[in-house]
Structures are given as structure tokens and as C-alpha cells.
């Protein structure tokens, strides 16, 4: 076999493919060219479960099914691993959407076929398609493939559809992502990130007993970028680790200052992104902060989101144990928001369970919590009590919700009803005021 071919699949190598595609584009006349970029989701699972040999066989079969007896195919290549790209001739009479549906049908057929034989319910084919029309003749082949690949990534994130057509708005999303991720480091240096604090209230006394540190990004022009917008992006790029460390430094510094000034302070919790599981530098980092600032470990708590535990239970356990060794508490954040597994609660030595705000968001017009949600909340709180885990509800927005939570014995509450996340100075006043008022009445 020539060196121009991929040994395993017999397809062209990627560079060769780009050359052929350029030739095809040059001679394109009364038809369009569709770039079809496919990747097998959970292919790694096949390799891990059945071994690489079976993985290779599956890949070869996949290529044959995709490229075999296909009159409209112009050329195809393996880009890398299980990523296959092909160029197909698209006649005038076939619409873009029609073609997408065709490929989608074929993907589903392939999935069924493979699922039966490999007994893997998880296997899924994800395809992105970009169309080169006569007007796009000057588009270079690599860009056309990268557009299809972008659409494929979008497809991979969707549960329902496995096949997505590229459109230009996807490039805007990428542009924004690049804009955000490329400015994070300088934004830290420029002081554009600030830590806000949201009080946590003890249900029995309605006194402040803690706070959560939440990051805010305020650009030089005064506008805010909210965490929901940038956290997922910097999580993907790995920069969240740097950002979390920034928050930890600020919080340690803040607590140390309050103590030095002889002022009251409550335990402050910080968020731990799941990205920390990859490198685990977080434990030595936190340890170094405790050495530097010499504050009591009870004053810092760590919130790990539920999905961290699902991703890698062993590492999560290591992390919790490491934090416990330093004397800090750990909470399970966003409990109930995803695929929470109740038995994780008994397996993992967590101290606090934070019920996700979704349970309170679905209220009726009189701010009453829905009956079904009430059942779930009260059961989780009962269970936490029996497991000797502290219960906290987040997203408390109304007095009705707060009253209900105290009725069923939820120990701590957090939400807009008490306070939104506020800047440090404002939070200090809140703490002082709350202490003063409450101490007078008790
Ligand atoms: P989270 O950890 O679940 O934080 C709680 C979010 O709920 C915060 O949103 C808070 O402002 C919001 N919230 C609090 N009370 C209420 C309420 O009564 N009603 C409603 N509707 N919302 C309420 P925020 O600050 O926008 O943060 C969003 C998410 O971004 C956080 O969710 C957390 O996952 C992430 N995040 C924020 N700061 C950090 C950070 O420093 N590090 C990491 N790794 N993630 C962070
Ligand atoms: Ca949190
Ligand atoms: Ca949460």
C-alpha cells in the first residue's frame, strides 16, 4: 500500500485528501460538495472493553459502510483515531436539509447494527456537514473540513440529534470562546475579576453562619460577564484552575485580614471545578495557603459539584480526604441537578449537601413549592439527617420557601431572599449588621 494511504483503513491520508478535494472544488460545476465529518462517540469504551483489535475491526467496518457503494463519494480520509472525513457530490435536486436527514438515517442504522453486535448501548455516530456551493469556490479545503468538524462538535454535545449542518453562527460562538479564553490571564492581572460573597443563613436563628465566594468579571468598560457565560469555556480550556486559585487567595487573604482586625468572620466556601481532578495540584496549593495565612481550617469550606463525583469517584474521594486532612469541610454542590446517585451519599464522606436551586425554581404563582418537589426535598433532608450530613438549600427567593424549609428541618438556607452575592465591602457590612441585630435580640 502506498504511503499516501492510511494503513488501517486503506483511506487516503489527510494531506492527500485535501489535495484531492482542491481538485474536486476546481472542477465543480452544476453540483455542490458536502464535507461529511464523522466521529464515533464512546469509541474509547469499545477499545477499553473489547481491546484495540476489536476497536480496529469496528473502525474498518465503519469505514466500509460509510464509504462503500456510494456513487456520490469523491474522496475520504482518516483524520486521526476514529475521525473520518469524506467529500460527497451533492446534486442540485438534493437540498442541504434533505442530505442531512439522509446521513442521519444512515448513522442511526449504523448505530443499531453495531449496538447489536458489540452490545454497547453507548456507541453513537456524530456527524457534522459543511456544504461547498459554487459561490464558495474560493473556500480552501482545510477550512471546509474545519467547518464540518465544528458542526460535528456541536452534534456531539447534543443528546437528540447526531447530525448537524454547519452554519456561520457557529463561528461566532468560537470567536467568542477564543476572545474570552485569551483574555482570562490578563484580566486576572488587570484586576477585572472580583470575588462576591453570598450569605448563608441558619434556619433556626436566621443568623448568618457562612457565605459562598462567587467570582465576577467586570470589564474595564464596567460591563459584567457572568459565570454561566465564561465558566464552562474556561473549564474546557483548563484555565479555571488558575481562576479558582485566584478566588482561594482572595478568600484566604480576606479571612486573615478580618481576624487580624479582630472582627467577626464566618466560614467561607469556595467552588472546586471538576478540572482539578485532572492534575490534583489543588491539595498542595490549598496547603500552601494555610501555611501562608495561618487561618483556622474551619473557616474555609469547599464545594464540589455533584458531577465531579460521577466523573471519577476515586479521585473525588482522594480530594475529599485530602481536604479533610487539612481540617476543612466539604459539601456536595448542586445535589439533584444531574444524574445524582443517591448511593454516592453513603460512599463519600461529605459534610454538607447543597440541594440545587432547581427544586425551588418551579413554584406556582403563590410561590408555593410543587408537591412533587416538596416530597423530594423533604426526603433528601431526612436522609441527610440520618447520615449526619448538614443540609443546605440554595436559591431561596421567598418567605414562603424559607418557611417551608424551616418546617421540614433544612438547617441552612441561601438565596436572594436573604441576599444576592455582594461585593466584599458590602458583605462586611452585612455580617456586622446581622451580628449586631441578632445579638441584641438574643
Ligand atoms: P453555584 O456554585 O451553584 O452557585 C450558585 C449560583 O446561584 C450563583 O450564581 C448565585 O448567584 C445563584 N443564586 C444564589 N441565590 C439565588 C436565588 O435565590 N435565585 C437564583 N435564581 N439564583 C441564585 P453565579 O454566581 O452566577 O454562579 C454560577 C455558577 O458558576 C456557580 O453555580 C458555579 O458553578 C460557577 N462559579 C461561580 N464562581 C465560581 C468560582 O469561583 N469557581 C468555580 N469553579 N465556579 C464558579
Ligand atoms: Ca457552589
Ligand atoms: Ca449550587
Topology (elements, then pairings):
Elements: H1 14-27, E1 31-41, H2 43-50, H3 52-67, E2 73-80, E3 83-91, H4 96-118, E4 124-132, H5 141-157, E5 163-165, H6 169-189, E6 193-202, E7 208-218, E8 224-225, H7 227-237, H8 240-260, E9 268-272, H9 276-279, H10 282-293, E10 300-305, H11 306-311, H12 313-325, E11 329-335, H13 342-347, E12 352-355, H14 358-361, H15 371-386, E13 390-394, H16 399-407, E14 412-414, E15 422-423, H17 424-441
Parallel strand pairs: 4-5, 7-9, 9-10, 10-11, 11-12, 12-13, 13-14
Antiparallel strand pairs: 1-3, 1-4, 2-3, 6-7, 6-14, 6-15, 7-8
Helix pairs in contact: 2-3, 6-7, 8-10
Bound molecules: ligand C2E and calcium ion (CA) (2 copies).
The site of one calcium ion (CA) has 4 residues, from loops.
Amino acid at each position: 500500500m502506498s504511503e499516501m494511504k492510511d494503513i488501517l483503513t486503506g483511506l487516503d491520508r489527510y494531506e492527500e485528501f485535501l489535495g484531492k478535494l482542491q481538485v474536486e472544488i476546481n472542477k465543480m460545476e452544476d453540483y455542490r460538495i458536502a464535507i461529511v465529518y464523522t466521529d464515533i462517540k464512546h469509541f474509547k469504551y469499545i477499545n477499553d472493553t473489547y481491546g484495540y483489535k476489536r476497536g480496529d475491526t469496528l473502525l474498518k467496518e465503519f469505514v466500509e459502510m460509510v464509504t462503500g457503494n456510494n456513487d456520490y463519494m469523491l474522496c475520504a480520509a482518516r483524520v486521526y483515531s476514529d475521525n473520518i472525513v469524506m467529500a460527497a457530490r451533492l446534486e442540485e435536486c438534493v437540498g442541504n436539509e434533505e442530505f442531512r436527514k439522509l446521513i442521519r438515517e444512515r448513522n442511526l442504522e449504523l448505530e443499531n447494527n453495531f449496538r447489536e453486535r458489540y452490545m454497547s448501548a453507548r456507541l453513537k455516530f456524530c456527524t457534522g456537514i459543511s456544504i461547498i456551493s459554487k459561490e464558495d469556490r474560493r473556500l480552501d479545503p482545510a477550512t471546509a473540513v474545519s467547518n464540518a468538524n465544528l458542526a460535528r462538535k456541536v452534534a456531539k454535545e447534543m443528546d437528540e440529534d447526531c447530525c448537524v449542518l454547519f452554519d456561520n453562527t457557529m463561528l461566532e460562538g468560537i470567536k467568542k470562546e477564543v476572545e474570552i479564553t485569551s483574555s482570562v490571564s490578563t484580566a486576572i492581572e488587570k484586576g477585572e475579576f472580583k470575588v462576591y460573597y453570598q450569605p448563608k443563613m441558619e434556619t433556626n436563628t436566621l443568623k448568618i453562619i457562612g457565605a459562598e465566594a462567587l467570582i465576577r468579571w467586570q470589564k474595564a468598560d464596567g460591563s459584567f460577564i457572568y459565570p454561566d457565560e465564561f465558566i464552562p469555556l474556561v473549564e474546557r480550556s483548563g484555565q479555571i484552575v488558575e481562576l479558582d486559585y485566584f478566588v482561594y487567595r482572595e478568600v484566604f487573604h480576606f479571612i486573615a485580614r478580618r481576624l487580624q482586625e479582630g472582627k467577626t468572620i464566618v466560614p467561607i466556601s469556595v467552588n472546586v471545578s471538576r478540572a482539578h481532578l485532572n492534575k490534583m495540584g489543588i491539595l498542595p496549593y490549598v496547603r500552601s495557603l494555610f501555611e501562608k495565612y495561618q487561618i483556622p481550617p474551619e473557616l474555609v469550606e469547599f464545594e464540589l459539584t455533584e458531577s465531579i463525583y460521577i466523573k471519577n469517584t476515586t479521585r473525588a474521594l482522594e480530594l475529599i480526604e485530602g481536604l479533610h486532612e487539612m481540617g476543612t469541610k466539604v459539601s456536595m454542590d448542586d445535589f439533584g441537578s444531574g444524574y445524582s446517585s443517591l448511593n454516592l451519599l453513603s460512599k463519600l464522606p461529605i459534610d454538607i449537601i447543597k440541594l440545587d436551586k432547581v427544586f425551588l425554581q418551579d413554584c406556582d404563582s403563590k410561590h408555593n413549592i410543587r408537591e412533587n418537589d416538596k416530597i423530594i426535598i423533604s426526603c433528601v433532608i431526612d436522609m441527610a439527617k440520618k447520615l449526619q450530613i448538614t443540609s443546605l438549600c440554595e436559591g431561596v427567593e421567598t418567605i414562603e420557601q424559607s418557611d417551608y424549609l424551616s418546617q421540614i428541618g433544612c438547617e441552612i438556607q441561601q438565596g436572594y431572599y436573604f441576599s444576592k452575592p455582594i461585593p466584599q465591602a458590602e458583605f462586611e457590612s452585612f455580617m456586622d449588621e446581622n451580628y449586631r441585630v441578632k445579638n441584641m435580640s438574643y
